[in-house]
Amino acid sequence: MPEIRKNLDRMTNTFVQAAGPSEILALNQEFKSIDDIVLLTVGEPDFNTPEHIKQAAIADIAANDSHYAPSNGTADLLQNAATFLKHHYQLDYDPKSEILATLGVTEAINVSIKAILNPGDEIIIPEPTFPVYALAAKAFGAKVIHVPTAADGFILTVAKLTQTLIDHPQAKAIVLTTPGNPTGVSYTEEQIQSLAQVLKQHNVFVISDEIYSELTYDRPHASFAKALPEQTILFNGVSKSHAMTGYRVGIIAGPHALISQIAVVHQLITTTLPGVTMAAAAEAFGAGENDAESMRIAYKKRRDYLIESFTKLGLSFAYPDGAFYFFVKIPAYLQQDGFKLARQIAKEAKVGVTPGVAFGQSGYLRFSYATSLEKLQIAVSRLAGFLQAEKQAK
Ligand SMILES: Cc1ncc(COP(=O)(O)O)c(C=O)c1O
């Protein structure tokens, strides 16, 4: 059909044309072809899914669980997710009416945004952050209010929140992520309480993505849902906590009135999750509710190693108390274009990193430590050589 090909601009969605495929995934793919490279690009655990969870999935298949499951999720999964949230974060949700299972947190983001926003509505997104929030909002024709946080240690301050709400009184939602991607920075209980005091006075939903909640290294995770239960749409899941990115299970927890709206969108888009992945996630939140602990200890060791190593190399970074990322400021003596620099480091030092600009903040690089300590040691030694050579060249 040559006419359609010629008229593709007119025949397809303009946002999709402008957005294009993910730059992060494309860069990662490009780096993979470099022989012997150490990839610190990946945002997923390097561990295998715990054995008992895999067995639960196998048993589910053997039991011929091959039919449509309940749209909001199986009773087991919803009950175990509710118990997990209660045990770990002292949150109270009714599994029958206040929790919805989604295809990873990625679906949670998309269906929640679609359920809340009409075209032209405003959503506040502090940056740098996971790029899917803004892309999902823009794809639905919403207007994104970008709020930079680099000058405040990657935390949204009360002053900035207050000013943003004054400037955008019609904003319907704000997205907060704790611990954060790409920074690894998390909000303290006190910071959450102060922000909640402000948010309480406004008709604004708080979309709180807490997918990294099990991976905190200096203090227990603090949840926005605890401080602001009536306004918070909480995301969590098993992707990061249980090394189950490929199973694609996330959860949304929130007030029933809102969950029932989001469930309408979920039904339209997904119908329901596969029974087999829900059986695995039910096991993860149930018998495996503390599975993340051994992985958390390993990540903490790697984080501590990198804090020491990067400091010795003279690099400055946001203090990462959660997730598995470092957000490192590009030193003045290096190329300042993040994409060019990442390509140079990949080629010359054989270390793959992601430019901060892919998360909405130029001048930084993201390093993921979801890889073995041995590989991190190789990466650090290569980086040391690269930085030394670049310093001398200047
Ligand atoms: C903050 C954040 N939210 C959501 C996701 C996606 O999670 P899922 O794999 O469960 O869709 C990621 C993945 O990197 C993330 O960093």
Description:
GO terms for molecular function: pyridoxal phosphate binding; transaminase activity. This is Aminotransferase. The chain is built from 16 helices and twelve strands. The protein folds into two domains: 2-48 and 292-393, Aspartate Aminotransferase, domain 1 (Alpha-Beta Complex); 51-285, 3-Layer(aba) Sandwich (Aspartate Aminotransferase, domain 2). The relative contact order is 0.17. With 394 residues, the chain is α/β, with parallel strands linked by helices. Strand 3, helix 8 and strand 4 form a beta-alpha-beta unit. The strands form three sheets. Strands 2-8-7-6-5-3-4 form a seven-stranded mixed beta sheet, sandwiched between helices. The chain has a three-stranded antiparallel beta sheet with strand order 9-12-11. A two-stranded parallel sheet has the order 1-10. Helix 5 (51-62) runs antiparallel to helix 13 and helix 6 runs parallel beside helix 13 (275-285). The structure holds pyridoxal-5'-phosphate. Residues 43, 104-106, 130, 177, 181, 209, 211, 237, 239, 245, 250 line the site of pyridoxal-5'-phosphate (PLP).
Brief rundown of the structure:
This protein is an alpha/beta fold and 394 residues long.
